[in-house]
Amino acid sequence: MLIFRQLVDPQSSTYTYLLADGESREAVLIDPVFEQMQRDAALIGELGLTLRWTLETHVHADHVTSAWLLKQRLGSAIALAGAGGAEGADRALAQDDRVAFGTRHLDVRATPGHTAGCLTYVLDDESMAFTGDCLLVRGCGRTDFQGGDAHALYRAVHQQIFNLPDDCLLYPAHDYRGITVTTVGEERRFNPRLGGRLSENDFAGYMQNLGLPHPKQMDIAVPANLRCGRPESGAAPPSPDWGPIAYTFAGIWEIQPEWVEEHLKDVQILDVREPQEFEGPLGHIPGAVLLPLGRLKGEAPQLSQERPIVTVCRAGGRSAQATVILQKAGFSRVANLAGGMLRWRAQGLTVSGGAA
Ligand SMILES: N[C@@H](CCC(=O)N[C@@H](CS)C(=O)NCC(=O)O)C(=O)O
Ligand SMILES: [Fe+2]
User: Fold this and answer.
1) In this structure, are residues 225 and 60 in contact, taking their beta carbons and an 8 Å threshold?
2) Atom 2, ligand 1: residue with shortest CA distance
3) N or C terminus of the chain: which is more exposed, having fewer CB within 10 Å?
4) How far apart are CA 32 and CA 5, in angstroms?
5) Which SS3 state, helix, strand or coil, does residue 79 take?
6) Ligand 2 centre from 158 Cα, in Å?
7) How many CB atoms lie within 10 A of CB 150?
8) pLDDT, tens digit, for every residue of 239-284?
9) pTM for the full model?
10) Atom 19, ligand 1: residue with shortest CA distance
11) Which residues does a 6 A CB cutoff place in the pocket of ligand 1?
């Protein structure tokens, strides 16, 4: 079984692709985005995957890769085209190389033209391919910087992508209209720049007159990506350090009950249940302050910022929402108690009140 996810970075309209072998749980991540590292690491953790490789389709000009961050965090190895000129990769890829994850693999095809080092990754059974900015849905990458070359791009598309099976799904690195996927057959017929009977010279003429402004992040992104996303300082951006809090794919910072019990005096426990639940059979955590979820937004400004806040409810659902409300109200050190009072009690931790 193949595990497959298409993820989006809305800021840069970049797609990141997670592929994993369902048996061995080994995974690869194509074109991960720096700002989405926590999200992607959370998904990989929740699906029980081991990230073997981060792969770049090219040295991007519009966003910074999280390849280096993920290597620090998950121990993944970095691979991209040798022709892209980046330093800090574990493996330099070229035409006909193979990147394995468990029993599955991706075949590497060199598809230059958007940049000199663009690659397309083709899944072992040719059911899907990841074309980067070589071929986009009914479009293609621009060819006006980073060694771009319209003639090379035309040939790459015709010789390396259009010779895949017609029903092979094509996944681009970007789409600016929110379209997610296409097929070889469709693009051969309907791509307005490269499909039908358009010639290499027709295409070059089209590309010379695109007239696009340069990507906004270009001056930051290109140098950073030439270091595989290693920050200039050599250090990862700070993540919360007041406790062992973990980000979930649902977008919530969570903390485990054992740590909270051992650090009760270092945090504020904010119980967001209703008063009758607080005094009911589940009891509450010693020292907890009661503020039902429905009143939280209005009364948050009265809470102290002095100690981090751990939110709690019955099962951890309403209290997850509470962390979102608190963050919007300007509280940065906030986490949800994983599993709520139910897990707290199941683990035999100290309770005030409640039934035995
Ligand atoms: N407005 C975007 C520009 C994006 C852009 O230029 N994207 C490149 C790929 S890195 C491209 O080839 N775009 C093709 C197109 O927009 O048709 C930004 O500032 O990031
Ligand atoms: Fe690009």
Assistant:
1) yes
2) 215
3) C
4) 12
5) strand
6) 19
7) 23
8) 899 999 999 999 999 999 999 999 999 999 999 999 999 999 999 9
9) 0.95
10) 215
11) 12, 61-62, 133, 139, 141-142, 174, 176, 212, 215-217
Residue 257: enclosing H or E segment and its boundaries?
A: helix 257-262
Q: DSSP characters for 275-306? A: HHHHTSTT-B-TTPEE--HHHHHHHGGGS-SS
Closest residue CA from atom 7 of ligand 1: 215
Residue 16 DSSP SS3: strand
Question: What is the atom index within ligand 1 of the atom nearest the CA of 62?
Answer: 20
Amino acid 16 reads T
Report phi then psi at 100, rounded to 5.
-95, 145
- From ligand 2's centre to the CA of 148, what distance in Å? 10
Length of the chain: 356
Q: What is the pLDDT of residues 110-151, one digit of tens each?
A: 999 999 999 999 999 999 999 999 999 999 999 999 999 999
CB atoms closer than 10 angstroms to residue 277: 18
pLDDT value at 356 more than 90 = no
